[in-house]
Amino acid sequence: MSDLAAFRADTRAWLEANCPPSMREPVRSDKDVTWGGRNPSYANPDQKLWLDRMAERGWTVPDWPTAYGGGGLSPAEAKILRGEMAAINARNPLYSFGISMLGPALLKYGTEEQKQEHLPRIARGEIRWCQGYSEPGAGSDLAGLQTSAVADGDDFIVNGQKVWTSYADKADWIFCLVRTDRSTKQGGISFLLFDMASPGVTTRPIKLISGNSPFCETFFDDVRVPKANLVGELNKGWDVAKYLLGHEREMISGMGSTGNGPLIAKAVETIGTDDTGRLADPMLRAAIATFDVRARAFAAMSERFRDELKAGRAHPAQPSMMKYVGTELNKTRHELLMAAGGSDALEWEGTDSDHGAAARAWLRTKANSIEGGTSEIQLNIIARRILDLPLQ
Amino acid sequence: MPLFLNEDQTMLADTAREFLGEAAPVAHLRRLRDADDPTGFDRGLWAKFAEMGFTGMMVPESAGGLGLGHVEAGIVLEEIGRNLSPSPFLTTSVAAVAALSGTSAGEHWLPRIAAGETIAALAIDERAKHGDAVAMRAERSGNGFRLSGTKQFVAHGHVADLVVVAACTAGSAEDAEGLTLFALAADTPGLTADARRLTDSSIAARLTFDNVVVDGDAVVGSVDDGRAVLNRLLRAARSGAAAESLGVGEGAATRTLDYLRQRKQFGQTIGSFQALQHRAAHLYAELEVARAAVLKAQQLLDEGATDADTAVSVAKAMAGMASTLAVQEAVQMHGGIGMTDDADIGFFMKRARVLTEMFGDIGYHSDHIARIGGY
Description:
Chain A is α+β, with helices and mostly antiparallel strands.
């Protein structure tokens, strides 16, 4: 048996023995999602068990170095682990902006001390991170941000406001873009890490069209941050920010490649099939089938993108393409889910609809093509950086 | 296996791109079209395919070929698509070879295909839309069979040496069983071809089988059990057509991007306009997704994976959508120039339409995905 075949066999056996049956059930709502942090919440004690078992092996971050709490797996091994987890429908043990966004940036730009301090805690789900990027006046034009950090001895003093900070009210630490030089735009931005429990930090959840409040306004009023928490060089934060955005887009694009099983099951349940086994609504069937083709093709694209990324052959702007396609697909999926659910899916309250879960999820997806850079910004990036089309 | 080309495959892609770009660029198609060429392709070019080893690339080494797979065939087909190079490569060296490999009929035909001596045509379709039913009958007669019926949209059917034909030997047209595949010489008495030039200047024939008698050696695989062989043929044909479609789409997109960078209006290159940039970027994304779907299908076919059928239908449908978008955007963004016969871009639109229709269109394959998915 080859090494990889042996790894696959061992992985399969370990997952079979260690992944609790309830962690092989689909995630139904945000309550089922494990975010970790100082004040974790678990709808089911198996979530904690599953997290701890996976973290113990470094498999919450399979391809990070073992020295920082990772699994130290090769790209081929990490692919096998993903495949074996998917084969038993194993849930992701830990959702974390630390894993999907900050970790890769720290691995590339962080000091050894910063890596030692933060990465193992991210891997074990001990610290929950949020992202301080957008501001009221700096959305698509992110580099126009104004939140300032002024040197004061060994510290920076941070003042300003962020917006659309995902789960800022539940996060323990923030990675934050701040202005350290007003004389230039991109060249005056720095990348800081600080504790959300620091004096002067306040958050205010924003109620969205879904009725939920996953995003906050975040205010900084003379927040004192040690200079040791600067990632990368002073005024070079835009490089870190862009690198991290690539990973954020990668993560958001992953939403496009979740399975089509729930959509088809819902349509069959609501509408039924004719005597040839076809969905009884031919127009909806055609729309779902077209979506199905595109979603399956995108799953292949995601596999190819990950493989190219690991091999260092992906175009640096390719995450923009993935984000654009993945989020547009996810919006289509939820439009179809609403159509498949019919008027049942419109119920906003009550246990029959799980408190409007379908409708709230549908509304939530409308942000997919806005957050992390709008679809239009992604198309700009593709046009300029991949297709090399000129500026107007 | 990572989902990108390995080193050998990348070298093959470079070789194929250089070869087809020089030997059969779009100007080559235009010359054939202008000369009203009755063959539909250039036999000199086919001889070069044989010299390159392309004709037998999927033929097992034991039969004189290179023993390569669907991924490698797809690499050549993508370049064929990019250059719109007319050739019987898809029908002969990909689909017919896939059907004949490992069969006793293959022992006769495969070495001849590898040597470039035999051109194959696929007699599958019976109606204007590709479907699963096979109405053509083959009745037992002595040691062999007597075939009667008609087939259409048979590419190269008028010049082929070998015709691979699906016929019903038991049961009814819609049955999965009772189907048999035959490989017969095109000059078998009773078989006639009516050549039709298509939109893209290629030639496809309507074939009439009027009591065509073949002996048992013509059976590919086993009698009444031809569905598996036909599926093998169709998987190769569909993934191959998808790869060629992708190449057509890429060729159209590349020319269009060049045009956007050079054409000036309102004192600026039109490629600087955001309205066009966004459409070009969207097209790029569609083609990239199609490229991944096509390679995925080919890798699964080469692995002999059980779920390859799904991936093949995804590839054919997605490549159809992406290439259709590519040629439509190409003509629109070229403006009036795109409508002229002098510009090459129209050739891309015509070829994309033919390939999208071949071996099941977007609707056929989307429906197939739905049926596999149980809805």
